[in-house]
UniProtKB/TrEMBL annotation:
One of its GO terms (molecular function) is carboxy-lyase activity. The keyword Lyase applies. GO terms for cellular component: cytoplasm. The keyword Lyase applies. Residues 23-292 form the Amidohydrolase-related domain. This is Amidohydrolase. It holds the Pfam family Amidohydro_2. One of its GO terms (biological process) is secondary metabolic process.
Length: 301
């Protein structure tokens, strides 16, 4: 498939639903040195990846931004994440500059359990951060680490959503899984968490979390694709709940780090059993637009 075919396929899906485009809450833009290391890690099938994982959209930054715009993505993220101390503040400085030069990118920030975390998180919020990224698997940290107490409080009070990779896929981590998130939400019940990858493979458990916490959402990133289904299939018995929580599910792609085409990721969602156009409209655009652009684009009309 050519890039033109890919872009045409994406536009065909959202146009047929009567949408003005899509919002993708799970895309990655990073400093080049970091992105190169991430791609090298995927190329080597590192232990946190666990399998062959080709990068479909390996291109320079401007080309990757241009491709999203050709798809009709009206809002996207630059999900950065640290894997060690003294990295998050630098990533935040890069991300705020990227957002300023890329108006369709939601200003993104991150954090790590370290003594100055609350200071740079407070600065990021002051600088206009619209979304945070937390990666429990890569960061190998306990989300309830005392060093993050003030961080979570600041984010909860600011009502800034957090895309959080806390499920145990593709490879379990020491602190992944639903229980640390349940404990976190007991302490900070108003956190606007967006559980990445539908919480795979603990799909049912994270739907339970969603059911009990009104501000918790899930993103579709890589879930329901053949690449994931062959190892971590979404349980058929949970499909009715998937439909029920249609207003709490947001489209995410993991672009550019996906081993298939963007249009295919969207198409596989349209083929889910029992899913209707209203659900698709909400997931591809309306839910995220309501969350991130409430005064401007909360609905498609």
């Amino acid at each position: 498939m050519t890039d033109e075919d890919d872009a045409a396929g994406v536009r065909r899906i959202w146009s047929a639903l009567g949408l003005p485009g899509i919002v993708d809450v799970h895309t990655h833009f990073m400093p080049k040195s970091v992105m190169d290391k991430v791609w090298n890690y995927f190329d080597s099938a590192g232990p946190l990846v666990g399998r062959h994982w080709p990068i479909t959209y390996r291109a320079d930054e401007s080309r990757r931004v241009e491709m999203l715009r050709r798809f009709g993505v009206r809002g996207f993220t630059a999900l950065v994440y640290p894997h060690k101390p003294q990295m998050a503040a630098w990533l935040n400085q890069w991300a705020v500059q990227f957002a300023r030069s890329t108006p369709d990118c939601l200003a993104t920030a991150t954090f790590y359990p370290e003594p100055d975390a609350a200071d740079y998180v407070e600065a990021a919020i002051r600088d206009g951060a619209r979304v945070f990224k937390a990666h429990i698997q890569v960061g190998r940290y306990q989300p309830n680490d005392p060093l993050l107490d003030r961080v979570w409080g600041l984010i909860e009070d600011a009502r800034v959503p957090v895309v959080i990779h806390c499920g145990s896929g593709p490879v379990p981590g020491e602190y992944t899984g639903p229980e640390p998130i349940r404990r976190l939400l007991r302490r900070y019940p108003r956190l606007r968490l967006i559980v990445a990858h539908m919480g795979m493979p603990e799909y049912a458990e994270f739907l339970d979390v969603c059911e009990r916490a009104a501000d918790v959402r899930l993103d579709t990133t890589m879930a329901f694709t053949p690449f994931v289904e062959e190892q971590m299939p979404f349980p058929t018995a949970q499909l009715p709940r998937l439909r029920h929580f249609g207003d709490r599910i947001l489209f995410g792609s993991d672009y550019p780090n996906i081993p298939y085409r963007y249009s295919d990721a969207m198409r596989w969602l349209t083929e889910l059993p029992g899913i209707d156009d209203d659900w698709l409209r909400a997931v591809f655009y309306e839910n995220a637009a309501t969350l991130f652009f409430p005064s401007k684009e909360g609905t498609r009309r």
